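Hi there, hope your week has been kind to you so far. Do you reckon you could talk me through the fold, stretch by stretch? I've dropped the whole record in just underneath, so have a look:
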Amino acid sequence: MVNRAEAPKLDSAKAARVYKDFPGYERSTFIDIMKAGGQPDDFPGLDFGPVLKTLPFRKIADFHASREKRGDRGMIPCAMCGPKEKFLEGSLVWIESRQSIALIGHCCADKENQRRAEEEYHERMERTRAEDFLLASLPLTKAALAAIDLALAVGVEAERVKAAFSRKFPAAVQALKAVSKSGGMLGHTEKIEDQFDEVGPRGLGRLNSRTITIGHLFGAGVLGTGFHPVKDLRIARSRVEALLCEETPEAALELITSSYASGDELKKAARLLIAAGRDYKHSLRHLQEFRAFFSEYNITTINEWAGHPLSDHRFSFEFRRHVNGVRINGKEGNAFDTLHLDGIALSSLPEWPVASKMDAG
């Protein structure tokens, strides 16, 4: 957290505000002025120099001014290069030895000072982004955990159903995997002999063909070896549990100040929560595929495709809804079997409540 300095005072001798401590809080005010159409050199209390190029400084904010929006004002004068017009791209900086803030061009300062300022600014912005992300996200960790637990219940049932379907109807699974690999369209090819093209000594007709499309196969990814939503959800749960927080900004602030002293610890915690979101969303895509595959439309389409006169497949399915879920009656060869899906397996799941990335700043 950046502690606010005492209220700046006007130094009449320099006609610039005095900042005894680093005024990081001025960053948001400066950015707001720029977004509202203001110009960098309109910011109140600036020190216009001259400032020695060798003086160390800390960056508050970077900016790029539009030449068109400046009109007749020309380029911005640099505090380190005198009052002459100099640049459009630069930084608002705090110069500790002068206890002031100033505008300098991006290549006007001593190179070593510029390098140190860039490194410190980058590290501070990374820390601020992680801190802001955690302040907004930690109060949502209980909601995230609830979403994961609901998805886990769905995932457990989905994996059970997938395994039972593969075990009970292996020929159907093999055939549907082949369809998925060839584009996912359920259809048949019919050969047609052209009766009007009987030529040649043997009088052979030319064989043409046409494609009969039944429909698209949805959710075929559920049949593959990569379907494991429960594994990803358990990993997501362990990550969120490590960051569990009460649902108030005050609790988030307390957890941050007591547990994450360094910038590296803050960034690590933020990355942990972002990774949990990726795991959850990955599992959500798996479960959406599951619902698509075991939907009434998809099972009916598969049955129509398998039962078509041109089909050589020997399986069929019947989709039946009941009070507690769905029953799929299946026949493969001469064997009959039934697959029960608990209603929870086909339920929709909540979106991930936490932001998917840290603000770019």
Remarks:
- Residues 1-14 have pLDDT under 50 and may be disordered.
